[in-house]
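User: Here's a chain of 545 residues. Predict its fold as tokens.
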Amino acid sequence: MWVGVIHVEKQMESAISTFNVEESPWGLKQGVNYEDFLKIFESLPKVKEILLTSETLEEAREKLRKFAEDLLWKYKNGEIEVDAMDRWLAIEAINVFLNIISEYGEKAAGFSTLEYLWKATKGDKRVLSIITEGFVEEFKHLFKAMAGVTGYSKGWLGPKLEAAGVKFVDFSKIKGRKAALMRSEYLDKVWEYIKGYLKKYPSGLDEHIIEKRKKQREKLMEYWGITEDEWFDYRWQFSHVLKREKGLETLRELNELGIVKVPEEDLKQVELAVKYHIPWGITPYYLNLWDFEEPYKYDRHVRRQVMPPAWYVSNMLQHREDREYYFDFMGEHDTSPIDLVTRRYVTIAILKAYDTCPQICVYCQRNWEVLEPFMAGSFPGWDKIEAALEWFAEHESMLDVLITGGDPLALADKIIDKIMGRLSEFDHVVNIRWGSRIFVTVPMRITDNLAEILGSYIEPGKRNVSISTHVETAYEVTPEMAEAVYKVRKQGIYIYNQLVYQRNVSRRFENVALRIALRKVGIDPYYTFYPKGKIEQKDYLVPIA
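Assistant: Prediction complete.
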């Protein structure tokens, strides 16, 4: 967490100068009172003393450097007795602090975090008015770590278990079968505690959720005047995605009819998104994952994935003209050796076969490129696809090809088959991956025919085919997803989940609930993305410790 202090503050100052808002880019209250600020020094009062008595910034820097280095030596020399883990953390924290106050660190950041700290400690009203709760929390916990008083060795769960009557066992002092039995008993108690958290996160596989969504689906089918067969036909889903003015009108009408409650603020932001061509869109299937009667009570994690908040809309508005470059945080313009190909690694490259999706995720990394669901011209044409495939043919270092977009599994079967056929001609390609959220947004798109096409290109010992997806919450794991996954798994294709770790899915054990639900349907939890650097998505960012 602490290594980001300089970077975060640099972005904070930039955002403050650009936007006249009362919140920081990370949704934290801007401005703190002096008394609250001084609480950061409770663990290390010596730091406050140095800052208060130093007449210049350089004097403060030199005294703090000496204090930190002396403290570091005391830990390394065994003069401060703490648990080994707390000792390790203290040493790491001191090194972070030394980096923060160093002139080199300030040059890299473009400004001085230490100057903010020094002036705020002296009661500078201007500085106190612009720093955030985040700034205060960063340093409060950094100083606690430096002082060795975080309780890190016990973890956050240890004290809670003790409060619940579960005694901590020092297993280093017990050996053999006795230790094994006591450990097993202790872990059973830990599980009972964890279950209490998991109950907070219902799954789309829970019977009462399935029944509720069935009733909601019937209301939507009546509204659109369709049969159940049409609802479960991906072509109907594709053709009725809520987007542009018509999608907004549909959302308003559903709200006015009392079918789906939508807060006025959400409708206002969607209206702005539509007016100024900011990416937005929802599939009817995904709309049915909402709780129609209680917006944001239990379904925040699904609504917020598709309903753009005010900060996002305002940022996208300000950069309408330079969006293509401003929001390209990963620098794809600089890593594309040919159209449709992005290469940042030695043996892996991306083929962007389809530049659109059935649904728009607000936290999308490619919000500079994917502009709306099923946008006209999103398929680049076979000539461009062929040129990109030829590039892969010419580069034998390309062992792994990730086909993405957009969502390429929204393409027609014959195009998917053709791409797979060409890639299978390259002996050096050992893994073909498809990146798709179709299991979440329109799972009925996974037909038996599509699954068979993908599976037909597996050659054991020569070439594998796999799929990477983004399931964010157990609420998105449904019987429809389970059926789609099963069709693919029957073909020998494994599906891996890449969680985008964002604010709305970050509560304790929430991701554990997700992983359990994923295992039930046959998706393997894979790895976690963090949406770093995307300032327009501040409402989705969560601190990482």
